[in-house]
Structure formats: C-alpha cells, structure tokens
Amino acid sequence: MQWSKQGRILEPSSSSLWYVSHAALPFVDPIEANSWRLYFSGRDSDNRSHTGVATIEVAQGTVAVSHVDTRPVLSPGRLGSFDDSGAMGCWLVSANGRKYLYYIGWNRGVTVPFRNAVGLAVSDDDGRSFVRCSEGPILDRSAYDPFSTGSVCVLVENDTWRMWYLSCVEWVVEDGRPKHRYHIKYAESSDGVRWHRTGLVAIDFRSHDEYAISRPSVLKDGRVYRMWYSYRGDAYRIGYAESDDGFRWRRDDEHAGIEPGPDAWDSQMIAYPFVFDAGDYRYMLYNGNDYGRTGIGFATLDGQP
C-alpha cells in the first residue's frame, strides 16, 4: 500500500472568527454527485475549538474546496459543561434518518492541562445544523477509562454500533510537566448513544517511548477491517492495522504508505487520517505540522484508475 500526496486543500483563516488557527480532524459526508461536506475543527482567538463545515468537490482523484461556511455547526458548551473549552467533531454516522455527530468535548484542567470526553449532537435536516443530545458526554471517564476519552470512529453493522475510541490510561510527569498516555479501545451500542465498554484494547503501545495513539479511521473491505490512526513518539505519524473481526488487530505501521514532507506544511508531522472511498478512488485526508495548525491535505491510494 502506497499513498500519493496531492497537496493541501484548506488552511486556517485569520479573517474568520471561529477558525483563526487550526483546521484539524477532517472527515466527510456525501451530499450529492461529486459534492461532499468536509467537517473540521478550528480554534478561535481564545483557543477554544469549534466544528465547522466546508463544501468540497471530489472527482477522479481530485479534491477541491468550493465553499467554507461562515458559522460553525458546533461550538463550545455552556460554562462548566464538559465541552466549555471546545467541541471538536471527529466522526459522522447516517442512520435512522438522522446524522449523528460524535465530537470531543474538552475542559481546561488544573492538575493536568486538559480533560476530554465524547459528546453527541444530531441533525434532522441532513447535516445543515446539529443539536446536542445532552449537555453531558455520552462517553466519559469510567472504570475502564479512568482518565479521559477522545476521538472515535463508529460503524453500524447488523444493528450493532461499533466504536473504536481513544482512551487515556495515565498521566506521567516528565521534565516537570504532566504528559498523557493514550491508546485505542473498543465499545459497542444498540442505539449509538448508550455504550457498553469492557476495556478491550484495539491498538496498544508498541514501546514505552510511544505515548499517544489516536484518531482511528476504520473501513471494512470484504472480510478485512482496515484501520488508519495517528501514533506518536517524538512526533505524530500515520499508522495502519488490519483485523478479521474488528476486535483483534495486527499493527503494520511500516506499510502505512505515507510519510512527512516534502512540502513544508507537513514536513515535521502527519496526523489525524480519515480514509474514504469516492467513485473508483480511495482518499486520505490528514493534517500536517502542529496538530492541524497548517491545515488539511489529501492523498490518493496508488494503483487506482
């Protein structure tokens, strides 16, 4: 497997109020023909995260942004809520005539820099607007996830909602500062709202130097589940794993087929992949340096028409 980078398609806009910096965690939803909605997370001047939408045209191995909405579809919650510092969309599911937008809500911390949990907003107008299911999270700290939860991927198979999600396992102090450690776990649901967790680890650390595994993106090809994700030691890279059942995964990061550079915007880091199919092509959206500060790029899988 090898990906060919095709360039950057979206950068933060200093003229916008809600994404002065960053365009992170991209994911898409089809509208019609070659038009798709591109969801991404931007930060305002107070460093709070909002989820916004752009329209992209996807055809024959190309991706181009045609419009960016002036207002976000999801902004930080009320003071004191789990998402009062940011609401970062990470996955969308279309089911039961609705759109389910899963997002990372976060607060600024005291003993640690931040605390994350997973929220849910739904749309009954085909994704043009979203309303929170509740002011509280649907996936918070628990006996299985005692520190925090984060970015998710959700697939619906035979009436079972399957989730792969970030789970923080500890904070450690290095050089006088707290440092998080998180990997990817698995959960199931019958309705996409109430989730059953057992602590099953999908993608685990390979060494002590690896401390952050995040942003799973899962596709099912026939009988094979394929997952792309971010993993980090010194800097984020994009990893890859396969599974026969979605529970037990075989990591094969060396064959992920995509590396940083050569362009300056992604020369140091590549992160937060989202993989999708359109027509005869398979695409990957991803972020470059500094966790999305330099914007969103895309790549196409080699060996396609």
Describe the structure.
Helices cover 1% and strands 58% of the residues. The protein has one helix at residues 289-292, and strands at residues 3-10, 21-32, 35-43, 49-59, 62-68, 86-95, 98-108, 114-123, 131-132, 148-157, 160-174, 177-189, 195-203, 212-221, 224-232, 236-243, 249-251, 271-278, 281-287, 296-301. The chain starts with a strand and ends with a strand. It has 305 residues and is mainly β. The chain contains one helix and 20 strands. Strand 18 (271-278) and strand 19 form a beta hairpin. The protein is globular and about 50 Å long. The protein has one domain: Glycosyl hydrolase domain, family 43 (Tachylectin-2, Chain A). The strands form five sheets. A four-stranded antiparallel beta sheet has the order 1-20-19-18. A four-stranded antiparallel beta sheet has the order 2-3-4-5, with no helix packed on it.
Compact overview of the structure:
The protein contains one helix and 20 strands.
With helices defined by DSSP (H or I, 4 residues minimum), what is the helix count? 1
Secondary structure class reads: mainly beta
CATH class: Mainly Beta
Morphology call = globular
Radius of gyration: 18 Å
Largest sheet: 4 strands, antiparallel
Strand order in space, largest sheet: 1-20-19-18
Poorly predicted spans: none
Number of domains: 1
Order of helices and strands: EEEEEEEEEEEEEEEEEEEHE
The CATH architecture can be given as 5 Propeller
